[in-house]
Design goal:
The protein is built from 5 helices and 5 strands; from the N terminus they run ααββαβαββα. By secondary structure, it is α+β, with helices and mostly antiparallel strands. It is rod-shaped, with a radius of gyration of 43 Å. The termini are far apart.
Length: about 170
């Protein structure tokens, strides 16, 4: 039997009046016979079987939706992202060295080691600072950049650096 005609028959059970003692179990007042066992293992007429089917679909859908919502909520509670990591600026030193007509502005945690690695004619100064302080100097001196962290040793650049080093004392 095609599914569409089966569903049509379930919704329209006329002609299946109950035989005495053998009636639809949905209600004692239902006048119809249950569907044959080949169609339904539940002793319901077509009308009540269709209602039971629709109720079951709704219930399964609601429970599935609830279960999915609970599962997602559990996942969200279980796998909370770590709090935002705020990086403290690493404390170190900003150094200024001159080599010929150039000045280098750099950052290090170990000035003695770093200054021993770089060619220079003069250590203009070393002040306490962070990498962000070094980057601020780079931004300030951008018009005088030669390459990388090396800048032209113009009088105004040298005066600015010497002023900061003198204040840091």
């Amino acid at each position: 039997m095609a599914e569409s005609s089966f569903l049509h028959q379930m919704g329209n059970p006329t002609g299946h009046l109950a035989v005495r003692g053998f009636h639809c179990r949905a209600s004692d007042s239902c006048p119809y016979n249950p569907l044959p066992r080949e169609i339904s293992r539940i002793a319901l007429c077509g009308k009540h079987l269709r209602e039971a089917y629709e109720d079951a679909q709704d219930l399964i859908s609601e429970r599935w939706d609830d279960a999915c919502r609970r599962y997602v909520a559990d996942l969200q509670n279980t796998f909370k992202p770590p709090p935002a990591i705020t990086r403290r600026p690493r404390q170190g030193y900003v150094y200024f060295i001159r080599f010929g007509h150039r000045v280098k502005v750099g950052f290090t945690e170990n000035p003695n080691r770093r200054l021993g690695e770089l060619p220079h004619e003069e250590v203009i100064g070393v002040v306490s600072g962070t990498r962000e302080d070094e980057m601020a100097w780079h931004a300030l001196l951008t018009d005088f950049r030669v390459t990388g962290e090396w800048y032209q040793a113009e009088p105004e650049v040298m005066a600015q650096i010497r002023s900061v080093v003198a204040k840091a004392g």
